[in-house]
Amino acid sequence: MSTPLLQFQDVKKHFPVKRSFVEGLVGVKPKYVRAVDGVTLSVQEGEVFVLVGESGSGKTTLGKLCLRVYVPTSGKILFEGRPIAGLRGEALKKFRRSSQMVYQDPVAALNPRARIGDAIAEPLKFHGIGSPEQRKERAYKMMERVGFDPPEEFYPRYPHELSGGQRQRVVIARALVLDPKFVVADEPVAMLDVSIRAQILKLLLDLKKEMNLTLMIITHDIAIAKYFADHVSIMYLGKIVEGGERETIFRNPMHPYTKALFSSVPVPDPEAARDRMIIKGEIPSPISPPPGCRFNTRCPFVFDRCKTEEPPLVPREDSHLVACHLYDKAP
Amino acid sequence: MTLLQVQEVDVRYKTLKGELKAVQRVSFDLNEQETMGIVGESGCGKSTLGLALLNLMPPQGKVTHGKILLDGEDILTLDKEQLRLARGKVVSMIFQDPMTSLNPVKKIGDHFVEAIRAHDPGVSPKDALEKAGKILEELGMSSDRLADYPHQLSGGMKQRIMIGLGLVLDPKLLIADEPTTSLDVVIEAQILDLLRQLKGSLKLSMILITHNLGVVAEVADKIAIMYGGEIYELADTRALFRNPLFPYTQLLLKLVPNVSQETTSLEWIPGSPPDLSTPIPGCKFAARCPMVMEVCKKSPPAYRELEPGHMVACHLYDGGKK
């Protein structure tokens, strides 16, 4: 196998929690939010890597780490085999050109006072690519690709004149106009109506094929993984608990959390059996994650060892990684 | 026993662009202990309909036609005081966003005390708190939470509190507008499970407003499909899933992702929902309908009962069912 496009090696990102003045005086120990707490993963070139997790699992922080929006507290992130933490000057600019982000909320991501065409051409300007005319030409081309037809008509419009789906197309066009290699899409359709979600996801996927992208989709929606992923990783409280090929994960989810996630999805069939596995409680605070396995406070199969020893993420079948003590007992 | 009768209700909003017909000729009945789902995309008028049922219209909106009979009484004709009593005692509403529905500077307990004493000032704050504690326990939370402020609770807990506040006056009907939309799947499953339990234990009628057919499939007895301000199909949940008649319903069913199914292709509906500020002469769905005919663009289809209990408004069935 060739070198992965992106590799995480035991990456941690802890954010300090602000101490009050008095706490500082009396020497209360600083606390940290352990948003990402020891993640190792690799994203292969050309694949759709879907990262699934609840709010508070650290999935967005992980996405931002990929793009060096955040610098890790410890651990290494390699892009094309080179650590991204050490990039400076031209090399950093090149990295920024080749990796882009599609944000969740197109309303917040777009300047309400900028024409959408200018918004799409902006990254080109920032990176000093082409003359103003050439940039406009590239913006037109990109707009056509994301379905604005004819682009000339849409170029001068403002975000408020567009529907939610169209706005998300603008955000996608802007991310792709620099011809990146790697795109992180953080909840790209969470704010959209069900009837157009599939459309936007399909567009992302088509563009991925046309432009030879590697795509990381961050989502809480397992259905997206089901329909679009090559590789799926499940994140819980700062850790990857399970990861593997889509078929493997959906055929045989092994980690109790993955199982619970799958059975929590409302099934659009009133006659389906309701043998759901509903887990109790909520995701614990990442400031003081439970010792041992992080899922032990909610796991229906918990036993003593889970409360003291953290299960490593190890292959259980071929390339199916699971972090759970349950499978140590079985031969 | 019929608890709620909605008869030919129209709701209009005044906007800068002129009058917007948010809800049009909506009729349905809801029996005691029955749960109905109202399903549609954003902007289809489902939340407006929910507000109209409580006569809670914002100043720029108005119910311009129709009757809403609750226990035989038309809530649109009640005066302010009668209406205040009806809201809460008979009907309660749970709003979409629990984050913005709670007062951030008031403790959870104060929210309960306020709701209880607004309807019965004779109850002492101490008794009110006691009652609130019992409700919290029923919702699977510790009564210690009454001393917390909203920011100390997670989204799922806040939504439980909202449900609790809705239940505090023992209403007969609970209207929930997207009660799980802002929640994670795991918490969503917990809340749906809770609603199902409450439906049984408190003998409640419920109206569940949502864009997610998967959510109502599990909880509702019957489902109304709204599009462009109108109900286009209304049927028993099983009948609707087994035999959807309106093309929009058929498409909606196809685009609900089903994790337990083998298929890996996802469909969508081309185009976007209609702009209700300009009048549409025919069927509102005609512009996006894969089975559109000439007549659909010209005249609105009649809303009729095609099979017992299965209502639909679609020109495809003008000559009866094929």
Protein model, in words:
- The complex is a heterodimer of chains A (331) and B (322).
- Chain A is of the alpha/beta class and 331 residues long.
- Chain A has one domain: P-loop containing nucleotide triphosphate hydrolases (Rossmann fold), CATH 3.40.50.300.
- Chain A is built from 13 helices and twelve strands.
- In chain A, the strands form two sheets. Chain A has an eight-stranded mixed beta sheet, sandwiched between helices. Chain A has a four-stranded antiparallel beta sheet with strand order 2-1-4-5.
- In chain A, helix 5 (116-126) packs parallel to helix 8 (164-176), helix 6 packs across helix 8 (164-176) and helix 8 (164-176) packs parallel to helix 9 (194-210).
- The longest helix of chain A has 17 residues, at 194-210.
- Chain A is globular.
- The model of chain A has no long low-confidence stretch (mean pLDDT 90).
- By secondary structure, chain B is of the alpha/beta class.
- Chain B folds into two domains: 2-90 and 171-190 and 199-317, Rossmann fold, CATH 3.40.50; 102-170, no CATH class.
- Helix content of chain B is 33%, strand content 25%.
- Chain B has eleven helices and twelve strands.
- Chain B has helices at residues 46-53, 80-89, 98-101, 108-119, 125-138, 155-167, 185-201, 213-219, 237-242, 247-255, 294-298, and strands at residues 2-15, 18-31, 35-39, 61-70, 73-74, 91-94, 173-177, 205-210, 222-227, 230-236, 303-307, 310-313.
- In chain B, a hairpin with a 2-residue loop joins strand 4 (61-70) and strand 5.
- In chain B, helix 4 (108-119) packs across helix 5.
- The longest helix of chain B has 17 residues, at 185-201.
- Chain B starts with a strand and ends in a 9-residue tail after the last strand.
- Classes of the chains: A alpha/beta (331), B alpha/beta (322).
